[in-house]
Amino acid sequence: MVRYSLLRILIFFGFVFLFWLIGLRTNPVLLIGASAIASAAASYILLRGMRDEITAKLVERHEARAEGRQLQPDPTSDEAAEDAEDAGNGDQPRNADR
């Protein structure tokens, strides 16, 4: 993720330098604006593979966390309380009259 961000910054400053050489140095707002737009378009095309890899890693991490949460019962849920009660009673059958 850091590598992707650094490459985006380098692309931005590359366009700043290019547009500065072309002659946009007299208008800094136009220089920065044009550089931002051009670098966003270039990054979208040039860094697509890296962005897809990062996205896949984030999805895997998210799914692993979600799966881990599903495997662990919520201690405040009714199911957890019933399981604890059953574990305390052993194998004795429940009497509905109590």
Number of strands: 0
H and E order: HHHH
User: Based on the structure, what is the oligomeric state of the protein chains?
Assistant: single chain
Sheet having the most strands: none
What proportion of the residues form beta strands (DSSP E)? under 5%
Amino- and carboxy-terminal Cα gap: 60 Å
Helix content percent band: over 70%
Overall SS class: mainly alpha
Number of continuous helical runs: 4
- Unreliable runs, pLDDT <50, ≥5 residues? none
Question: Can you put this structure into words, describing what you see?
Answer:
The mean pLDDT is 85. The longest helix is centred in the middle third of the chain and has 24 residues, at 48-71. Helix 1 packs across helix 2. This protein has four helices and no strands. The protein has helices at 2-22, 28-46, 48-71, 78-89. By secondary structure, the protein is mainly α.
Tell me briefly what this model is:
This protein has 98 residues and is mainly α. It has helices at residues 2-22, 28-46, 48-71, 78-89.
